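Help wanted!
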Amino acid sequence: MARVKAPVEEAEQVVGKAAPRLDAEAKVRGQARYADDLSFPGMLYGKAIRSDRPHARILRLDLSQVAAHPKVACVVTPKDIPGENVVPIIYRDMPLLANGVVRYVGEPIALLAAETREAAVEAAALAQVAYEDLPAVFDPLEATRPGAPQVAVPAAAEGGNVFNHMVIRKGDVERGFAEADVVVAGEYRVGYQEHAYLEPQGVIAVPEDSGITVYGTLQCPFYVQNAVAAVMGFPLAKVRIVQTATGGGFGGKEDVPSHLAAMAAVLAWKAGRPVKLVLPRDEDIATTSKRHPGLVRYRTGAKRDGTLTAVEVEFYYNAGAYQTLSSAVLWRGLIHAAGPYRIPHVKVDGYSVATNTVPCGAFRGFGSPQVIFAHESQMDELARELGMDPLVLRHKNALRVGDETATGQRLTESVGLPEAIGRARELSHWDELQDEVAAFNAQERFRRRGLGASTVMYGVGMGAKAPLLDKAGAYLKLEADGSVTLAVGTTEMGQGAQTVLAQIAAEGLGVPLASVQVAPVDTSRVPDSGPTVASRTTTVQGMAVLDAAEKLRARIVGAAMEMLGCPKVVPGDGRFHDARDPTRSVSLAEIARWMWAHNWDMAASGWAEARPVDWDAKTGLGNAYFVYAYACHIAEVEVDLLTGETRVTRFWAVHDSGKIVNPETARGQVIGGIAQGIGYALMEELPAEGGRILYPTFTAYHIPTAMDMPDEFVVEFVEASYSGGPFGAKGLGEVPLMASHAAVANAISAATGTRLRAYPATPERVLDLIGRGA
Amino acid sequence: MRIQFRLNGRPVAVDVPPGRRLLDLLREDLGLIGTKEGCGEGECGACTVVVDGKPRLACLTAAVQVEGKDVLTIEGLSEAGQLDPLQEAFIETAGVQCGFCTPGLVMAAYALLRENPRPTRDEVRAYLSGNLCRCTGYAQVVEAVLRAAEKACPR
Amino acid sequence: MHTTGLAEIVRPRDLAEAVRLAAEGGEPLAGGTDLFVRLRKGVERPPFLVYIGDLPELRRISVGESKVEIGAAATHAEILASPAAARLPILRLALEAIASPAIRAMGTLGGNLANASPAGDGLIPLYLLGARVNLVGPDGERALAVEEFVLGPGKTALRPGEVIRSLDLPFPEGAPRAYFRKVGRRRALIIAIASLGALLWLRDGTIERARLALGSVAPTVVRPREVEQALVGRPLAPDALADLVEALSAATRPISDLRASAGYRRTVAGRLLLDLACTISPGG
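Answered by r_m:
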């Protein structure tokens, strides 16, 4: 199968090129300033006093010893909050500080600020809290039973502890199963996944004459602005959020910084001094969001020739004590539950349930990896029942242009999945690979290799759950010397957005990338641009940048025409040439100087909103997302039959994310996502007991090291262009993680001969699979 | 307590409280914020510095332990402004994403190339296995180290 | 929780002063890779620390005729770079498995021993080689076999004020083959779930003598002497050892913890015997 070439002009000079990252030099020099690297005169160190009970009434809170500590400058309880005691996210159920009742271990009760970090820790330990324990529940299924302790704040729940129940009802699933020749069913379980960004959470709130400014490691500055304004009782205009260099996010810095920033702001305001709040690693792991644990049940039917007829899904996510982002996470899980396949009859029921545990939130994939583990396992189980090659089964059912998704959305363009599957097959030499693995297995006594594939789709952007947030603003300024300043409202957290957006600006302006400088993200620079999530930055923010670039370029071209006295100019070699006589040209610096001298407006703002989407909550049908990205991954694993130890030996990843703006950073996104998927499938586990995370450390929570990565990687892109994205680009960031773990899981199942039904596939669990397969 | 040591090639003498960690001495007292704290218990490698040519975790080192020693931090690698070949290679291969683990990775790689100027791919992976990175999946990091080694000492 | 400060640290001029300070209640500090983590967690609060890591008399590694003597404060990296590691392959295999290069450049074999963790990779070669621990204290010097020195997890025979001076690692007779394997959920930077080290003396593919040491499966490292005996005279091949897998498992007394269950540890400890049989080729 031939590689699909994107139908875009080959004229692009900057987009599509592996430009070095703009932020790389400061980072390799150790000069990039992350949250804890900043200091302000008079700065205090903040600390939260947290609940050590999963569910309790606070009978008495005695902070007299805390306040008496000689280095404590300020103590905050709910009555000191100038505005509302709430962290507004999607709902308003979560207080900034517990309001008489604590609902999870680690919930903040009070705050302090001290002169030193050490004093803050010491003083926090002096708080005296008297609790009356309340019955607690930790398992989402138990929490839905009658008589279960009420965890959810009733106003934020659909009923009891069920925060949300969402459905898809397409066709008639019973008819679909009746038409099936083969039906497979299974139950799959996953636990927490911790983001383990290397930079812990951290913010610094600085009170100023005009209000308050918060600096921090964060993904979503406008969320933080909103939360700080709410707790301070300030108009939004008095709250400014500035992003520091951000050492990884992966969703973990989507909503959590709102909580931290609001805490720091209240402390700073009361103390009248800047307050830094940086979480030590154990506090970060124990008290901030993670991927939802899930219980997922599937039934999938197919005809003898492999044509899928029906899928029925029921899944439960453990949301933790407050809503935070769970409704949105659940929705994405719902929409992605049927996979990237053409299925006429679909029935899905998803539940997010409150328990007395730390609130779960956003994590790369956002509710989809849990159901992907299940649907991709089901595809392999079906393939086995049918005696079909798993790649052939996937290719046969893969969505194509003109097909309908599980929500009845007709796909009108940009569906590169069949090509991705075909290309993955070619790159891996799939048929020969099977023989190679079989030969290895025949020869080795205590080792087995296995191959696994997965295919996924990803709805780019916020989708119909939150279309109001799918927008972005940009501001481009031509400086008087010809350099260009770009301001955007979405953040760089490591994914390379800054570089990609600068490439889009440079391409749109017709100037070299080196001319473009990206300003730190600051809520006072551009309009609310929504959150930096949902793999939407290149697409939506990119369109806003392009909008600004086109406006500014019109003026640059106009100036060049006036300067050259010609009716048309063409760019080239960083200059603008007279179209009739290319030897006559002006440089961008000359144009800028001319515009400045002639008092021209040298700035332009850009705006973009995502294409419209719609969705009916009753049926679960509608145009859920404006476009989808796709991927096909293939993993080879090797299992030690004596110990159950498993390693991923080789990996092939083919993605359709439309036009790839920067192939080198895109490759980094893919390999990094694969690493997180390998971690999810093989080793990442955070045991909890009684709502308490037992070992919140990197000693116990293992993420992959360099040794745990495959020996060989092949990464390629098929670029099915999207007409609504800049130069045809769609989203990429989350997709690699989503696809990778399921390919690894299928490879383990193939190697052991037994279906893996729970993550992580620790040596002990794999040894158990081997035992049952023997 | 007064301690003396060499820091990035220059002698320094500083007063430190008895239990000060090297990490806090560097970051808070000397303003060298390039050395990062990721976990504080020696599990992530973000605070890797090079002491007498060997990699060392600044979070598990008391300041007094470097008395009389030669300490190199990320800032010292490009002191004259000129990037070290390793730093250049990390830029060229996009071996940097969020960048928080990068100084530690670069310092560990620096120690590796001192010990073993032409490591194999597997030797690089093994040597860097104490430096956690959550963004890159390490492939472009390993390529950067191999590229720097090749440049410094072509076969 | 997070504390930036450590305990006060005193730097003795020499070993004699270190011993005096230890007798006053100071806790010896060498590499700090374990001690600082414990202090940070607050599980231990010594009045002050005695920094012995730079005392020359504790850092010497001397290769003699019949043994290697390794100063208690020699780092794993120094040992690995010394002739000692070349002469004792089992020592090299085990020390290379410790944590990461930075930790190996900081941590010491003396510290590994004083820590007395059954998961300590560095302890396995000490048990296999029959190492002796040389101690110095207020009442003079004494030496103990490693098995007498380690009493349980975190427990040693160290008396108040005593400091580990060095370790004597006798060269084994002949040229035994060395094996070390640790099991974990990732391939680096792990504390072993279970580990097996071995010295095997082979002739024509047959085991003439064997020493085994199991880590992480009992309160201390274990030498399963019945299995060592039973190996004698057998060919080094998985089929020939299969019936000893159970016996090796039976030599363990594991616990369940966050890393694995007791049952898994017991099973895997035994099965590592088969890995040993495959890893060491009888010929070379």
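OP: Thanks! One thing I noticed: The domain at 56-170 of chain C is CATH 3.30.465.10 (Uridine Diphospho-n-acetylenolpyruvylglucosamine Reductase; domain 3).
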